[in-house]
Design goal:
The protein has about 210 residues and is α+β, with helices and mostly antiparallel strands. The chain has helices spanning about 15-25, 45, 70-80, 95-115, 130-145, 155-170, 175-185, 190-209; strands at about 5-10, 30-35, 55-60, 65. Helix content is about 50%, strand content about 10%. Helix 1 packs parallel to helix 3 (about 70-80) and helix 1 packs across helix 8. The structure holds glutathione.
Amino acid sequence: MNQQLTLYHCPYSRSSGVLHLLEELHAPYELHVMNMKKGENREAAYLAVNPMGKVPAIRHGEAIVTEQVAIYLYLADLFPQAHLAPPLGDPLRGPYLRWMAFYGSCFEPAIVDQWMKNKPADKAACHYGDFDTMFNTLIEQLSKGPYLLGEQFSALDVLWATSFGWMGMFGLLPKLQVIDDYVARVKNRPAAIAAADKDAALAVEQAAA
Ligand SMILES: N[C@@H](CCC(=O)N[C@@H](CS)C(=O)NCC(=O)O)C(=O)O
């Protein structure tokens, strides 16, 4: 059975975090690189992979997985020897799933609403409550440190630190030392540096094309 693992990737995008994760996992993978500025992610060939036209997506054998959170969960479970996902039965499995889901269902929607000055639904109906409650809940967990699950580094930290890095750069997040320290801790890992170097080289190639 073909178990080739491919990451559909655009440099300096949400798929950059998955690139970092693959490096952390020491996973054998190939990259299918697209130039977002040229709209390659909106061409028919890629829409057949992800009709949303969005990265990241992965193909593993016959399986296609889209949506960052699903991809992080899938990959971290696929390479258990890297210990980036607490297994079933581990008391940290629940918190691990909680903070993965929190990312997609609370954090990103709240950030986008705040950024676009969208009027959120009433607190009881809004899926993230309100921005301050969402953000304070997250920061309380992060402050326990050094990682989101405490002492144990996991795939969660690749997801969250990547996102904090981008959002901080675009001024979408309140500036807090606890976030800066967390991002630095994760971004200084050898796998993060290797992925950032690959991404930078790909971006240079695309700019020259
Ligand atoms: N819900 C998706 C969002 C992915 C997403 O928005 N990706 C951006 C890159 S950071 C994208 O592909 N944008 C290009 C486009 O929509 O044309 C996920 O969590 O994976």
